[in-house]
Specification:
Elements: H1 3-15, H2 25-35, H3 38-56, H4 62-77, H5 85-109, H6 119-128, H7 130-157
Helix pairs in contact: 1-3, 2-3, 2-4, 2-7, 3-4, 4-5, 5-6, 5-7
Length: 167
């Protein structure tokens, strides 16, 4: 898939009406991490987040959100030479869980958080975020299947195409 197309899909998925956290960005990070070079993948992922955040607005825990997305790129590298559905699904689930844990910890730890800075407050933060986690996981699984599936479909239709470079 073309870099510009990935950028457009990622930004569009954050801007159109959608259930909270059910976007293509996590899947885009995994797919690009698996099929494109590390530098290019990080740039695409951060660009998607940055462009859409200019419109959606900035927040105090962006460092955690962006960091978790870069971690998804790194996890995507784990499946860079793989076409295993099980391995790709495992990386996708791991990425979603880490995003949930990292970003909700950051929300809890942020100054002025709505959650008490206690273990109970941290648990409240995680419990209240479960609907967002469900949506994030569903979006990541759907879009990851879409990106990897479309890539495999294109390879099957046009055997002369190379697998996207992993360098």
């Amino acid at each position: 898939m073309d870099t510009l197309l990935l950028l457009i899909i990622g930004v569009f998925s954050r801007l159109v009406p959608h259930p909270a956290n059910m976007t293509a960005v996590g899947a885009l990070a995994i797919f690009s991490g698996a099929r494109l070079g590390m530098k290019k993948s990080v740039i695409i992922t951060i660009a998607v987040m940055g462009i859409s955040d200019v419109i959606l607005g900035f927040h105090s825990v962006m460092w955690a959100t962006y960091g978790a997305m870069v971690l998804a790129v790194i996890l995507g590298r784990y499946v860079s030479r793989s076409r295993s559905v099980v391995r790709i699904a495992g990386v996708t689930i791991t990425s979603s869980v880490l995003f949930y844990l990292i970003t909700n910890f950051a929300v809890w730890a942020a100054p002025g958080s709505m959650y008490a800075h206690t273990v109970s407050g941290l648990l409240d933060s995680y419990i209240m975020a479960l609907p967002f986690f469900r949506n994030s996981l569903m979006g990541d699984m759907f879009y990851t299947a879409l990106f990897f599936g479309a890539h495999e479909w294109m390879l099957a239709r046009k055997p002369t195409l190379k697998v996207i470079s992993t360098s």
